[in-house]
Structure formats: structure tokens, C-alpha cells
Amino acid sequence: MKEIGNIIKERRKALSVTQRELAALAGVGINTLTKIERGEANPSLKVVLSILHTLGLEIDIKIKSNKL
Amino acid sequence: MKEIGNIIKERRKALSVTQRELAALAGVGINTLTKIERGEANPSLKVVLSILHTLGLEIDIKIKSNKL
DNA sequence: TTCATAATCACAATATAGTGGGATTTGCAT
DNA sequence: ATGCAAATCCCACTATATTGTGATTATGAA
After folding, report:
1. For the whole model, what pTM was predicted?
2. Is B58 in Cβ contact with A62 (below 8 Å)?
3. CATH architecture classification, B2-54
4. Is the per-residue pLDDT at B20 higher than 90?
5. What are the angstrom distances between the C-alpha of B49 and each of B15, B27, B28, B44, B61?
6. In terms of CB atoms within 10 Å, which end of chain B has fewer, N or C?
């Protein structure tokens, strides 16, 4: 969970937007966002997708490669 | 939400495992899994990741490309 | 340091995800 | 059509995610 939080935080900073702004744009509570960024939350898919979409990010799912 | 459900369902079938088996292996309830596969749920990230991991799938997040 | 803004925290209330149990339906064999 | 297993439905309960408010604590700039 820490990973996605960091991705969101870094992308947000790269776009120079505050937590409050991002939360508002994504339609989620500020508390929810701060916890997610810190990896202290188990957010619903809806919330995650909303935040990622707002940040211009997308998810894709693929078969795990077993490269070392 | 429909999309991830279909991905899970197709991957599960490709591996020839039943919903009950997958649910048990992933540590989630059968009802939860059936709803997710049908796109009638808004699952938590924990549940989604557990299912994907069990299926040998992984998620990655990238900047949305604006190709047409 | 001082000031302003951003981020985190703490609390309580509401919404909803996750669950099991049992009934029902669907799908696919023979 | 019959039988079996898989999938779905229904219901009620529990767990927890989400929320707003207000206070507190960083962070950074002048």
C-alpha cells in the first residue's frame, strides 16, 4: 500500500498541486488522501481510480514476469 | 470496475480454477469475488491486490498516454 | 523569527465493503 | 432430460473506509 501512496504523492508534487486541491478535484476527502499517500489506508478501488485519473495516471494489469 | 472484473475472470478461467478456490486462496469471501468479477463491487485495494497476486498478475501505474 | 500555507492528527458520525449461510439458478456434462 | 458442480442471489451482521470539523504540527518564504 505504501507504493501506490508514494506514486500518488510524487506525481502530485510533480504537478505542483496541494493535497487539498487534489482531494477536491478527485472528489475524495482530505483525510482519505493524506492517509493514502502515507500508506496508512486501504482505499476502495473507486477512490484510487479517481485519484489516479485526476493525476493523469492509468493502471494496467499484466501477467507477472519472473525475471530476476 | 467492469474491466478489472473481466480481467480477473478471464485469468481465473485460463488457470482453470473455480471462484470458490480462488476466493479461498486469496483469502476473500466468495460473495466478494463473484461481485468483483461481475463489476458489481467497489473492492478495497487489499482485496484486489490479493486476488491479482493469487492469479499471478501485477499492477503497474503509468502516465496516461494520449495516443488516439 | 514571523507569517502563511501545507500537511497531519484526533474525534465522532455515516456509508459501505466484506462476510457467512442458505436458497436458487446456471452450465455443462452424460 | 438428469445430475452435479459452479455461479449467483438474498439477507443480516460485522468490520472498516470515508467523511467533516477543528486543533496541531510541519514547511518554506520574507
Report:
1. 0.94
2. yes
3. Orthogonal Bundle (1.10)
4. yes
5. 18, 11, 11, 9, 13
6. C
